[in-house]
């Protein structure tokens, strides 16, 4: 391969910082050690593929969009909604352009277009990925609430209200009707 991959290698190290970047909004709900941005992005990608498949969109594309949706937070950190009132958010497209500077043009342009598509809600897959982001936040809130963090209810309600796809809304209803360990009971053949 003739292209210099040094910028790609640097980005891979940079992306690793998301494993240690906490989702800060949960601190307001009292969660002392909230999930990382990387953990959130991973499950968001799974959810995006599910929503997209059931909505008739491309699940691989939706997952691809979702896995990249918060990569800018390597440079900006995770700024929660209250923080955004006092500090304007960075433009995801501008951050992505900086992150991809020096990468092979084919890769850089693909990643920049991907972020633009997600931010602009320019496709069915982007809509599914954005719903997955909200549904994952709701799901995480349900898990935190089950651990005793009553303040997570605000995130559950707000995330649920922002869902736009039929599948996202139906999945939300299913999640609300189950508990975090119902999957284990079902796998063991136990009656609920």
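^ Assign residues to that structure.
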């Amino acid at each position: 391969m003739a292209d210099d991959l040094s910028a790609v290698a640097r980005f891979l190290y940079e992306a690793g910082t998301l494993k240690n970047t906490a989702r800060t909004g949960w601190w307001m709900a009292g969660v002392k050690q909230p999930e990382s941005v990387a953990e959130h992005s991973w499950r968001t990608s799974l959810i995006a593929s599910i929503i997209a498949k059931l909505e008739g969109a491309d699940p691989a594309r939706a997952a691809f969009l979702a896995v990249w949706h918060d990569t800018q937070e390597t440079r900006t950190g995770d700024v929660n909604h209250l923080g955004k009132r006092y500090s304007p958010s960075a433009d995801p497209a501008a951050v992505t352009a900086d992150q991809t500077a020096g990468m092979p043009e084919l890769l850089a342009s693909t990643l920049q277009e991907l972020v633009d598509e997600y931010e602009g809600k320019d496709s069915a897959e982007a809509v599914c990925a954005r719903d997955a982001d909200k549904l994952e936040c709701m799901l995480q809130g349900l898990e935190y609430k089950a651990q005793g963090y009553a303040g997570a209810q605000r995130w559950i309600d707000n995330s649920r209200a922002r869902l736009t796809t039929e599948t996202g809304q139906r999945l939300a209803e299913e999640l609300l009707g189950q508990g975090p360990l119902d999957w284990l009971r079902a796998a063991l053949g136990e009656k609920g």
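The radius of gyration is 18 Å.
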